[in-house]
Design a protein that fits this description.
Largest sheet of chain B: 6 strands, mixed
Number of helices of chain A: 0
Shape of chain A: globular
Largest interface: A-B, 25 and 20 residues
Strand content of chain A: over 45%
Largest sheet of chain A: 7 strands, mixed
Structural class of chain B: mainly beta
Distance between the termini of chain A: 36 Å
Order of helices and strands of chain A: EEEEEEEEEEE
Mean pLDDT of chain B: 91
Structural class of chain A: mainly beta
Shape of chain B: globular
Helix content of chain B: under 10%
Radius of gyration of chain B: 13 Å
Low-confidence stretches of chain B: none
Order of helices and strands of chain B: EEEEEEEEEEE
Low-confidence stretches of chain A: none
Strand content of chain B: over 45%
Oligomer: heterodimer
Distance between the termini of chain B: 40 Å
Number of strands of chain A: 11
Mean pLDDT of chain A: 91
């Protein structure tokens, strides 16, 4: 297994545009998490899937954000009508159901909204 | 709201020195994890501690979980430039199995 894969690694977009990020977790992990991280801060929880079910969504997430995991494998995170405040590193992580081995993070997608 | 406080926030030391990073909370955690993150990359899990008073060693890194499972420490012996990075602690809430509670991190710079 090659670990958690995120694409793209970097995305520069103009304010108001929509962007979509993809995360491919470790195949035997049924839990998938999206986090956002800004410089000098720890990861900030966005949302969480167990298989294909989205079980929790942070109140920090506005209606412009949506995430899917249609077949319980890869996941996408879409941001509509991007704002400059959306600029951050978006991290995806996966884990086993019991999280015995912790989270495995991808390398992240760095979003810059200009 | 559960919080994990990490200290110090920033640390700059010379190669060969020892250091300790602290992660403290008023809440009890079922387990606690330490991660290391390099610029432009995602965090990488270093260790998970589960039992109160537990000590785990990873080469020059020693991790300790407090007896009451409210705090943890990371001690690095003879730091090397390759240890440079952001060290994050994250706790599992015993009552909420869905997400970790994260500290803000300790940014460590080890100068040659």
């Amino acid at each position: 297994d090659t670990g958690v894969s995120q694409n793209p690694r970097h995305k520069i977009t103009k304010r108001g545009q929509n962007v979509t990020f993809r995360c491919d977790p470790i195949s035997e992990h049924n839990r998938l998490y999206w986090y956002r991280q800004t410089l000098g801060q720890g990861p900030e929880f966005l949302t969480y899937f167990q298989n294909e079910a989205q079980l929790e969504k942070s109140r920090l997430l506005s209606d412009r954000f949506s995430a899917e995991r249609p077949k319980g494998s890869f996941s996408t995170l879409e941001i509509q009508r991007t704002e400059q405040g959306d600029s951050a590193m978006y991290l995806c992580a996966s884990s086993r159901w019991d999280r015995a081995n912790g989270y495995t993070f991808g390398s992240g997608t760095r979003l810059t909204v200009v | 709201t559960q919080l994990l406080e990490q200290s110090p926030q920033f640390l700059s030391i010379q190669e060969g020195e020892n250091l300790t990073v602290y992660c403290n909370s008023s809440s009890v955690f079922s387990s606690l994890q330490w991660y290391r993150q390099e610029p432009g990359e995602g965090p990488v899990l270093l260790v998970t501690v589960v039992t109160g008073g537990e000590v785990k060693k990873l080469k020059r890194l020693t991790f300790q979980f407090g007896d009451a499972r409210k705090d943890s420490s990371l001690h690095i012996t003879a730091a090397q430039p390759g240890d440079t990075g952001l060290y994050l602690c994250a706790g599992n809430n015993a009552g909420n199995n869905r997400k970790l509670i994260w500290g803000l991190g300790t940014s460590l710079a080890v100068n040659p």
